[in-house]
Write a structure and sequence with these properties.
Sortase, Chain: A; eight-stranded mixed β-barrel; 4 helices; 37% helix
């Protein structure tokens, strides 16, 4: 295509067309970069928010004296009283609390996604606290702010747990205390953990790993200490 202008050579027209194309491409590139930055910020905002909360709590606990820690424990107890005494969970280290929805089919996405709007899901066919079998609880590590508010993401920081950390489960008006003994990263298709081990009781908490993906499963294994 040749653009003719009065008193100017066709070459000048080509230069103008190239300049227009360059500016257009620059605008498109800038728009894509801006969109990518905004999208990534939106995508990772739940991770950033939870990480900041965790480190703030950790720093606060190091500063607190014995008396302050007692007051905080009393505050935790008051918050736990607001949980459903029929079935609920509290993980003090990551300040995670949620009601537990029992007998949810982990293979039925419609069923468990609906349950996760109300709390953590208990896998159908696994045991309950105090029965001597494996108790399997699962939740999302959801991948966006929209899903974070729609689906319960209390297990978002499970990867912060270590051996000896405590987990409290309330079931039928009784408090069960578990202690973390192992943390495992398993294949997404590995369902062996849903089976009762036939050994002593254990609590298994499951979330997605890495957070916001469905590549693997992070499993926290805990044993009762009471």
């Amino acid at each position: 295509m040749i653009i003719y202008e009065a008193g100017k050579s066709p070459q000048n027209g080509f230069v103008k067309v190239r300049n227009l194309k360059r500016k257009f491409l620059e605008i498109i590139a800038s728009s894509l970069i801006t969109f990518s930055i905004v999208s990534l910020s939106f995508y990772f905002s739940p991770i950033l928010k939870e990480e900041i909360k965790f480190w703030n709590v950790k720093e606060e606990n190091t500063r607190l004296g014995f008396g302050d820690l007692i007051v905080k424990m009393d505050a935790f107890e008051a918050l736990d009283n607001e949980l459903d005494p029929y079935f609920s969970i509290h993980i003090p280290k990551i300040e995670a609390r949620a009601n537990v929805i029992p007998n949810i089919d982990p293979g039925n996405s419609d069923e468990y996604l609906e349950a996760l709007k109300r709390g953590v899901a208990h896998a159908r066919g696994t045991g309950f606290p105090g029965q001597g079998n494996s108790v399997y609880l699962f939740s999302h590590s959801t991948n966006s702010s929209l899903n974070f508010s729609e689906y319960n993401a209390v297990f978002y920081l499970l990867r912060k747990l270590e051996t000896k950390d405590k987990i409290y489960v309330y079931f039928l008006n009784k408090k069960y205390v578990y202690e973390v003994v192992d943390i495992v990263v398993a294949d997404a298709n590995d369902t062996s953990w849903l089976e009762n081990s036939g050994q002593d009781e254990r609590l298994i908490l499951q979330t997605c790993d890495p957070p916001g993906t469905s590549f693997k499963r992070l499993l926290v294994i805990a044993r009762p200490i009471n």
